[in-house]
Specification:
The complex is a heterodimer.
Chain A: E1 5-12, H1 18-27, E2 34-39, E3 50-54, E4 58-60, E5 69-71, H2 72-82, E6 90-94, H3 101-110, H4 112-117, E7 118-128, H5 132-138, H6 140-148, E8 151-155, H7 162-175, E9 180-183, E10 225-232, H8 238-252, E11 256-264, E12 270-277, E13 280-288, E14 297-304, H9 308-316
Parallel strand pairs in A: 1-6, 1-7, 2-3, 2-6, 7-8, 8-9
Antiparallel strand pairs in A: 4-5, 10-14, 11-12, 11-14, 12-13
Helix pairs in contact in A: 5-6
Chain B: E1 8-9, E2 14-18, E3 23-29, E4 32-37, E5 41-46, E6 49-54, E7 60-65, E8 69-74, E9 78-83, E10 88-93, E11 103-105, E12 111-115, E13 118-122, E14 128-132, E15 140-142, E16 149-160, E17 169-176, E18 180-182, E19 188-193, E20 197-202, E21 208-212, E22 222-224, E23 230-233, E24 239-243, E25 255-257, E26 264-269, E27 275-280, E28 285-289, E29 295-299, E30 307-312, E31 318-323, E32 327-332
The chains are: A alpha/beta, B mainly beta.
Amino acid sequence: MSEKIPVTVLTGYLGAGKTTLLNRILTEDHGKKFAVIVNEFGEAGIDGDLVVGADEEIFEMNNGCICCTVRGDLIRILDGLMKRKGKFDAIIVETTGLADPAPVAQTFFVDQDVGDATKLDAVITVTDAKWLKDRLKDAPEAKNQIAFADVIVLNKVDLVTPEELASVEAAIRAINPYAKLHRTTRCDVPIDQLLDRNAFDLDRILDIEPDFLESGHHHHHSDAVRSMSFTIPGDVDPEKFMPWINDISQAQGPNILRSKGILAFKGEPRRFVFQGVHMILDGDLQRDWKADEKRSSRLVFIGRDLNENELRQGFEACAA
Amino acid sequence: MNTTTAPVSLREHVVPVEAGAHVIGAHWLKSTLALALADGRVLRWTDGALDSAEVHAGGILCCCSDGERLITGGDDGRVVATSAEGVSTEIARDEKRRWIDAVTLSGSGSIAWNTSKTVHARDDKGRVRSHDFGTTPQGLVFAPKGYRLAIGQMNGVCLWYPATEAKPEFLEWKGAHLDVMWSPDGRFVVSSMPENALHGWKLGDKPTHMRMTGYPAKPRSLSWSHDGLWLASSGADAAIVWPFQGEGPQGKAPRECGARHAKVTRVAFHPRALVLAVGYDDGCILMIRLTDASELLVRPALRDSGITAFAWDKAGKRLAFGTEDGMAGVLTLPAA
């Protein structure tokens, strides 16, 4: 099996600086060749050899899973690109400002041909320090994009005061304390901080400690997108945990944007690691727990309208 | 399972052809083999003589043929016809350079292709009609008779008469419809789906559904037998061959030919006999006779050299193939 081509998904609200970041990635001297899948073809002014226009066609898989949506255009384009192996080292998918990142991410887990040839590396969200707080109020898409991100480029920090910056960062961290956050002007972030993140690679989920410790659980109004994490200071019973997490994913999948977990299964020397996008879960037994490592079980959910107490009690009932 | 005994080999009758890039499609133009390549070239092979020309800047995404010309669609937004002699003529060009990833050709020489959600049909006199569909068409195929197109779409297949103003007929079935095939007698339309299934309709006043499921992968290669009674498909560890006698395959079990520990990627029925060429993702090619399931080895497995294209010549004497790593070959059947 030849090496899978890494795919980076670039999201961000209109005007945040996505195109600037994309052009930086493409023009910087890194010796890599990219295939770029852009929306609104021909209008953005992207400098690159292999630029493909996409239509953002989302479709529901006919498999009974209501939130199991994928990007049909992406499947078709990736299929075409994979016949030209060797012409590029990595793929970047730029989404429209209004796009929900979930169907893009799910495409890599649901479509077997896409999953065989490529791997999702990370979701990068570009945000605008000046306008993000307004967008979080009026645009659910902006919230989804923050919630989904593995890397957040907080751009245009030169346009705000230190107080405003602290306030916008707190707003971001209330939704997603786990993403790597870079403060930039003109998206000047080192490219190696954006690429080869392996954010969806189970082997690389070494740690799910927040990037930012104060995860501000103060936003309890109804449409709140926020994160929550639960820890059991010991083992869980897989016979209880697996059905529970499957039920939760089925019942609350539409509201769970991302999930991750590292678990100690009773009697199992290896760590069980999983990550999920809506209803789609991907999990595996990974490396052994180290001798000096405390066996514990931890879950993280980022989602909308999640019932924290119910989730906590459900998880705690899985303790071994 | 017929894999316990090694099949008799036709290997010594295969002439290798160096293609140099992923083979998108293979077609015989009279006695010349034309290979459409992912790097934008069309390679022509005539009894060992090779010639290639860059027909598309970038890459070729799809192709089809009527035995006279090779029609290619590329990521340069162009549709090009190439003759057996190697003369290329531009049929259409999209000013936005959008990908052309579906083309089809009718027996009478009509051509259809898509740009995003628009399907363009060019009749044999060169008149082009275009129609916008709700979602990007994937598979395109003309009816065996008459100027009518089947268009694979989201949640169904559209049947469109490009020469008329009539609203296209929509055969509804939830899910995405990728490749589309029309049976040679015109009675059935079959599509492949990302849920690893085929879906079929028996046409008529009230089209009836046929579900053909159970594949471990998408069945992206389909081939009708010369008598139109069998439809072979890829997408499993054997070629899955559905019976289309009478009312079609609903409720009937398919035949499984050439089961191996590899995935079938291409199938092609012989144009005159119930013999099926089966290509696998491990590079192996078997030729299988449907009547007694006997197998002949055409090409042994070869790493990273999965089969991507087949073409029988009109007489059924030669079988051409192409692979993902830029290899190709021509098998000439020994005189019986």
